[in-house]
Amino acid sequence: xxxxxxxxxKKTYHQGKIDVPAIRGISLEIDKGEFTTIFGPSGSxxxxxxxxxxxxxxxxxxxxxxxxxxxLSELSKTELSDFRRYNLGFIFQGHNLIxxxxxxxxxxxxxxxxxxxxxxxxxxRVLDLLEAVGLGGLEDRRPNELSGGQKQRVAIARALxxxxxxxxxxxPTANLDSExxxxxxxxxxxxxxxxxxxxxxxxxxxxxxxxxxRLIEIRDGKVTxxxxxxxxxxxx
Amino acid sequence: xxxxxxxxxxxxRHKKRTIITALVISFGIFIFLxxxxxxxxxxxxxxxxxxxxxxxxxxxxxxxxxxEREESPLENLxxxxxxxxxxxxxxxxxxxxxTSRLNFTATINxxxxxxxxxxxxxxPEKEKDIFTLDEYVFKGEMLSPGxxxxxxxxxxxxxxxxxxxxxxxxxxxxxxxxxTIDAELQGVLDTPNPMINEMNVFIPLSLAQESLxxxxxxxxxxxxxxxRDQSIEMAANLNNRFKEAGLSIRAYDWEQMSKEILAMxxxxxxxxxxxxxxxxxxxxxxxxxxxxxxxxxxxEEIGMMKALGLKAxxxxxxxxxxxxxxxxxxxxxxxxxxxxxxxxLNSIGISVSAMTEGTxxxxxxxxxRIYGGWHPEAFIFIFFFxxxxxxxxxxxxxxxxxxxxxxxxxxxx
Lengths: 236, 413
Prior knowledge:
Structural class of chain B: alpha+beta
Strand order of the largest sheet of chain A: 6-7-8-3-9-10
Number of strands of chain B: 14
Shape of chain A: globular
CATH topology of chain A: Rossmann fold
Distance between the termini of chain A: 26 Å
Strand content of chain B: 15-25%
Number of helices of chain A: 6
Number of helices of chain B: 16
Oligomer: heterodimer
CATH superfamily of chain A: P-loop containing nucleotide triphosphate hydrolases
Structural class of chain A: alpha/beta
Order of helices and strands of chain A: EEEHEEHEHHHEHEEE
Shape of chain B: elongated
Number of domains of chain B: 2
């Protein structure tokens, strides 16, 4: 059963009188537990597609279904916020941590706004996750006391802490050196394998593709390649 | 609670900006408190000066005289030996002392030039118990019975009079004939009331009555009570007696005689409203500026929060609490600065004569120094006012930030 189903999704931006098509009709199914890489050059529509999947942007046409039932085009702004709050995790290029909060508090933020756990449970879950991403003992540091890679790990922990159905990562390694990029991707892959969390991340870096378990290539707003498993010719 | 804590932590992000915005608010609050204190001080000093130098607590005069009292006419006078008034003055325990005065207009002459003045016939022996004129004798001594006169410093300077000189007063009697008094200048007054210093010549009541040929008549009776708060009740009490006795005389309390001052005080209240408007403006501009800057700087963060599922109203709440925090800091600082300002105004005061070189008193019976007054309610009011204004001022810019499209916010488009 697919976790996510896109039906002929299109997105057109309007710049003055000019229509700029960013997504030109994409249909996809993503299964639970998949580790999917969306690959393509800059401007190909990767980020737009992730934003649409992440309910941050609405498609101009087409529809998206989660769990085969929820039709996202039918949800209001508030319902979309609630959907993101409970079901989705995000990892951004720029990590977007809150500078006045510690690593612990930044991760805790994602579950504090859900507020379904006791303080003790919350603390345990955050500390376990920070440990899992290799930041054990650094929970009291503020973002300015962490390296780029460490910040991105905090962002990963923040995305995972609420056990979301899907984690979306838009070029999560774009601002990192190759060694740190590999560390971050290793962690994402580990979380995918250990927790079964579905990941979709975008990249234009060919070096990152070796991590792909499913590779979707986009060019000019269209899927040009969609390979997985043995069809992938990248080394694992 | 978590968002509240985050908002408080956000205050420390740009400490300088937070402090500057809070200082702008505190400056407005400081100005308001000092201005309020000054208005209260002016009111108290003006009223005290008026009561202690001119009106006493209650005055009794003919109703028709009251209507024309500014002209100090010689019509509608009352008998000095009015039994009802004397009985009341002597037997009422709340009356400390009572006296009578006779006012009339004249010109003062120094042999070269003359100047219009009001002559006030007083009972020197009773004056001390009712008024504080004797405390302001600048040169010479307090008026005593005889052919003596006492004038204000401004008038003495203007006419070139010294103690011991003879002042000539030229006036018309009730019958319309001209008469003069040549009185020896016994004392020069320097009171806190510029009008007295410039316009009044005091002579003994008996000399005034004799020179005007009006025998036993006076313009009014003046009563000093234990407390000024008794004035209204006492005036009402007297008026009842006058009515019962079928007399046309009436008693007037000090408030009725200080209408101009009280009107000016109301003007002071208007000034306070202007100050409030300035505070609203300062706080609003400061807070809106701060919130917009914060929102612009934190666009990616706002986008991230929206991506995590935070609703627009929760982001608005975050900014509003932050602004309330700035308001709290600003109000607290404003209260402290204002408290210091009011304390200094209370203890040191401001020299009015230094500011105006004694040429004006803004129409109030004040000269020398003015002191502030304490008004605790103003401190409480303005403290909460500062917080509320900065909180309300943040709502619109916070909504602007919170309603940003998450994609545009995240990618700074």
